[in-house]
Structures are given as C-alpha cells and as structure tokens.
Amino acid sequence: MFSQSHPEHYVPIFLFLLVAVGFGAVSLTVGKLIRPKNPYKDKNAPYECGVPPINDARERFSVRYYVIAMLFLVFDVEVVFLYPWAVDFDRLGLFGLVEMMIFIFILLVGYVYAWKKEALEWD
Amino acid sequence: MQMALFAYFGGAVVLSALFVVYFRNPIYSAMSLLAMFMHIAGLYVILEAEFLAGVQLLVYAGAILVLYLFVVMLLNVQSRGRFLQRQTPLVAVIGIFAAVDVIALLLHTRFYPELPAIPHPGVPTLGNSETIGMVLYTQYLFPFEIASLVLLIALVGAIVLAKGKLKYR
Amino acid sequence: MVPLSWYVALSSFLFLIGLVGVLIRRNIVIVLLCIEIMLNAVNINFVAFSKYQHVIDAQIFVFFVITVAAAEVAIGLGIIIAIFRLRETINIDEFNILKL
C-alpha cells in the first residue's frame, strides 16, 4: 500500500491543468488585444432581456436553494462511501453487500423523510 | 522535487487561509477557501493519499463550498459597522505569540527527516482506495454505520430548521 | 524528503489561523469557514502521520472527519438561517440572548 510513488503518473494531470489555464489566459489576452474598445454607460449596464435594469443584481436567494444544496451534500458523501466498497466488492463478498445495504437503508429513511416533507418540491 | 512541491502547496494553503480571515466580503472568503481546499488536495497527493485527494475535491470543493455560497447569497446583508470583534487586539497578540512558538518548535525539532522503511516489503500491496476499503468495511464497520446515522440526523435536522414552521414568540 | 515536523508545523499554523479567525470575525458565516480551516489542519496532520508511520487507519479517520464536517455544515448553516429569520442579523456578537 505504501509503495514508491510514481510522479510520472501525474504528468497527464499537469498537462491538463496547463492546457486549461493556458486556454483561458490566452483567449482572454488575445481578445483584449484585438477587440475594439468603446465602452459607454448603456453598454456597461447588465443585460436584462433588453429591459432597463430595475434594481441591484445582488438580491436575496430563496431558502429552497439551501435545501437542495444540503440534500446534494448529504447524498454526495453517501456516494463517496460507495467508491471504496465498489473497488473492494469482490474481496468483501456477501458481507460487504449486507453492510452496504444497511448503510443505504438508513439514508433511505432520510430520503423518504425529505420526500414526505416536500423538501424535493420546488414550490 | 518533493520539497519544492511541499513549499508551493503549503505556502498556498497558508496564504489562502490568511485571505479567508482577511477579506471583508464573504464571497471572497469562500473563494479563497476553495483555493485552500484544492491545495490541500495537492498536499494529499504528495503524501500518497490519492483517494482522500479525490474526496477532498468532491466533498469539500464540490458540495460544502457550494452550500456556503448559497447561504452567503441567501443572507445577503450589507455588513454594517465594524467587521472585527472587540477582543481583536488581545487575540492578535496571543496569535503572534503562538506563531512565534510554532516557528521555534519547527527550528528545534526535526523528526522523521527520512521516510522509515516499509514494514513488510515482500507482501503484494493493494492500491490506496482498495486498502482504505478493506480496512473501512471490516475493522471500522461500526463507525461506518454510525456515519450514516450522523448523515441522517444532519439531513432531518437541516430540513426541520430550514422548512419547519418554528414558533417564534 | 520533507521532514514530518514540517507537516506538523504547517498544520499548527493552519489551525492557528482558523482559531484567530473564529475569535476575531463578526460575520457568523466566516466563523464557520474558519472552523473548516481548523478541521482541514487536523486532516493534514492525520494524513502526514499516516504516511510516515505506515498506518492506513489515519486516512479512514480523515474520511470520518470529512463526513462529520459535511453534517456540521448542513446543521450549522440551517441554524444560521433560522437565527437570521428571527433576528435579521449575521453578526455573532448580537446573538446575545439564548431565548427566542
């Protein structure tokens, strides 16, 4: 488990990061260099379907976003627990299946609770 | 090589953590916290905990930070008055004292300058996620089931707090 | 090779920054963010010791810490929203009465 590290395995990730950052930086700088620059007040105003903006963009979000994000967080952690189990599924066998079923059942209770409390509904 | 990586990731982690405390705007603080989470994932990679690096990005950067950002936008109040507490000078003095203490400790101790030898070199080894899975689902079976209860309580409690009709007098 | 004491020092610095942030900031959301910094400092310590001592158990502890952090965030932000509906403030020194 604690074998010697292989730094060369991270070369593709490094290249990927380089390309991602480089693409953004290059396209922004090239665009800044070659585009015509003529700002005025109406052009700088935020676009709101052609209608003049009525108030500040920083408005309060609804509490429903919090509920959805919280449900996502809880089930995200549940899925993260599934990954090592899936990798070791053959070695753990039926025992692993049963314990994971118990785990999922406990969280299913929470899912049913959220459903009954209409936390999944948008309005 | 490893020293340079540690210096980069560690320095970036400390710097972005300082920015979290420093910025007035909570959105900026949350964004520097995102940078801190990503560099901590880099630290996990050079410590050969690849699975935890992935979990760090998935759970912390992907879910917890999104929740923070939603709540910051939900409680969008213009901060009025001062943004520091009254006890700030005292805390700053104690904090600088403790930081000097940590630096002194760092200068005087140097344990494990080399990685110790692997205990059983002949045994064929599993990957990081496979080892974590084998230990987690056999030896740490009970804490694992309790973790699901913790998540269930968090789910129910958060729904009650956010959607419930709490009676305020 | 990086000595283990450097990781311990890095994690103590991070914990210190989080602690100072909890003590000096008024915005309660920032206070929760600083608690996240402290949890991550502990996690760095766990993972560093896991590598230098050749024990995998520390990484499993980090896994549980991340789970508890997720639960803490969900509940803590729920409490903040509930208090905000009641008091219309997010400054932590104005939450000085425990009753509603």
Straight-line N-to-C gap of chain A: 50 Å
CATH class of chain C: Mainly Alpha
User: Low-confidence parts of chain A lasting 5 or more residues at pLDDT below 50?
Assistant: none
Portion in helices of chain A:
55-70%
pLDDT averaged over residues of chain A: 84
Distance between the termini of chain C: 56 Å
Q: Enumerate the spans of chain C where pLDDT stays under 50 for 5 or more consecutive residues.
A: none
Q: Round the Cα radius of gyration of chain C to an integer and report it.
A: 17 Å
- Mean pLDDT across all amino acids of chain C: 88
List the secondary-structure elements of chain A in sequence, H or E: HHHH
Question: How is the biggest beta sheet of chain A arranged?
Answer: none
The number of domains of chain A: 1
**From the coordinates shown, what is the CATH architecture of chain C?**
Orthogonal Bundle
Number of domains of chain C: 1
What is the strand content of chain C?
A: under 5%
Question: What is the 3D form of chain A?
Answer: flat
The pair of chains with the biggest contact is: B-C, 87 and 72 residues
Class from secondary-structure proportions of chain A? mainly alpha
List the helices and strands and how they pair.
The complex is a heterotrimer of chains A (123), B (169) and C (100).
Chain A: H1 11-34, H2 41-44, H3 63-87, H4 89-116
Chain B: H1 2-22, H2 26-46, H3 50-74, H4 88-108, H5 128-136, H6 141-163
Helix pairs in contact in B: 1-2, 2-3
Chain C: H1 4-24, H2 28-53, H3 57-87
What's this entry about, in short?
The complex is a heterotrimer of chains A (123), B (169) and C (100). Chain A is 66% helix and 0% strand.
Give an overview in words.
The complex is a heterotrimer of chains A (123), B (169) and C (100). Chain A is built from four helices and no strands. Chain A has 123 residues and is mainly α. Chain A has a single domain, classed as NADH:ubiquinone/plastoquinone oxidoreductase, chain 3 (Methane Monooxygenase Hydroxylase, Chain G, domain 1, Up-down Bundle), CATH 1.20.58.1610. The longest helix of chain A has 28 residues. The model of chain A has no long low-confidence stretch (mean pLDDT 84). With 169 residues, chain B is mainly α. Chain B has two domains: 81 residues, Four Helix Bundle (Hemerythrin (Met), subunit A), CATH 1.20.120.1200; 44 residues. Chain B contains six helices and no strands. Chain C starts with a helix and ends in a 13-residue tail after the last helix. In chain C, helix 1 runs antiparallel to helix 2 and helix 2 packs antiparallel against helix 3. Chain C is built from three helices and no strands. In chain C, 78% of the residues lie in helices and 0% in strands. With 100 residues, chain C is an all-alpha fold. Chain C has a single domain, classed as Helix Hairpins (Orthogonal Bundle), CATH 1.10.287.3510. The radius of gyration of chain C is 17 Å and the shape is elongated. At the B-C interface, helix 1, helix 2, helix 3, helix 4 and helix 5 of B face helix 1, helix 2 and helix 3 of C.
